[in-house]
Each structure stands twice: as structure tokens, then as C-alpha cells.
Design brief:
Strand content: under 5%
Number of strands: 0
Helix content: 55-70%
Largest sheet: none
Shape: elongated
Length: 182
């Protein structure tokens, strides 16, 4: 609802008449920051101007799914949880719990790595999904899996299989969170 309020305010400041369904679409599609919300609003307004003048849901959908914009299908952390729990036959409660056995830690680290590279979530947000873990724990998991996959072909195959099951997203093709920093 914060993003919806931001889009409403930006539209009002620009003197744009934006229907509520379009505002909701923009707020749903863009969940990173105010600047990107503004950019999406500008893009929708531009498409409307080019195609006839009024902003409506159809024009907004076209503008926000423009293939030239590099939009990718967003993957949720829940989808990643589902794919990893299925692949490794572990429970979600185990991934979010405190157990540190290898049979739990390994899938948990894979989940964290995929969440970091396939979603827009920060390290802190990802840690929150895993039972309130610290951002440094997530960073360690990401680095561990990335290091292991450089020499472990089986791990690379597992990651590719999970990504395929997530709808064919590319393992290293996501525009989100690709730089790992401390």
C-alpha cells in the first residue's frame, strides 16, 4: 500500500489522471524503489501519449511488459522454497529453523543463493524469510554456493534444474542482486 500511495502522489504531482487499477498494476510490477516507480509511471504516461492519450489498464500492461525493457518474470521466495523443498525432500520449517545438519544447511544455502539472485530482496529481507537470520549469514550462503558451483558440476546441474522448475529462469541471467557485496 506504500507503493500505491507513492504512485498516486507522483501521478497527482504530474497532473496525470491514473485509474486505480493502473496504479495497483504499477505498484505490483515495481517493488524496488521510488525512482523505479516513477520511471514506470513515466513509461505508462508515454505509452498513453503515443497511442491516443488516455491512461488505461491495457496501455499500462503493454508499457510494463515491453520486451525492449528487459523485464523478466519475477520469482518469489515462496516459489524458491517450494522448488527446493521438493528437490531435496526437506520441510519448509527445517529451512527456516535452527538445525545445522548438512542435509538441511545445504538446501538452505541453495535457497538463499537463488533468492539473492532471482528476486529483488535485500540480504536482510532474505534473512528474515529464513527464521530471522542475519544478512551476513545470507551473504556467506551465497558465496559458499557460488564458490562450490565453480568446481562441482552436480551442484551446477541441481541449480539449473531448480531454475528450470521455476519457469525457465536463467541461473545467471537475472538483473536483480547480481553483485554480492558485504
Amino acid at each position: 500500500e506504500t507503493r500505491v500511495a507513492i504512485v498516486h502522489k507522483k501521478a497527482r504531482l504530474r497532473g496525470l489522471n491514473v485509474p486505480d487499477d493502473v496504479v495497483c498494476l504499477i505498484a505490483t510490477k515495481v517493488d524496488s524503489n521510488t525512482r523505479e516507480l516513477e520511471g514506470a509511471l513515466t513509461k505508462v504516461a508515454g505509452w498513453a501519449a503515443i497511442s491516443g492519450g488516455t491512461i488505461n489498464l491495457e496501455i499500462a500492461k503493454q508499457a510494463l511488459t515491453d520486451p525492449d525493457a528487459g523485464q523478466t518474470q519475477d520469482v518469489s521466495i515462496q516459489q524458491i522454497f517450494d522448488a527446493v523443498t521438493s528437490r531435496f525432500n526437506v520441510r519448509l520449517t527445517d529451512l527456516q529453523g535452527k538445525k545445522r545438519t548438512k542435509s538441511i544447511v545445504y538446501p538452505r544455502q541453495i535457497c538463499m543463493r537463488l533468492a539473492r539472485h532471482l528476486t529483488r530482496h535485500s540480504l536482510e529481507e532474505i534473512g528474515g524469510y529464513f527464521g530471522g537470520r542475519d544478512h551476513t549469514t545470507v551473504l556467506h550462503a551465497v558465496r559458499t554456493i557460488d564458490q562450490q558451483r565453480s568446481y562441482d558440476a552436480r551442484l551446477q546441474a541441481v541449480l539449473e534444474e531448480i531454475c528450470h522448475n521455476l519457469g525457465g529462469v536463467g541461473l545467471d541471467q537475472s538483473p536483480y542482486n547480481t553483485e554480492v557485496s558485504g
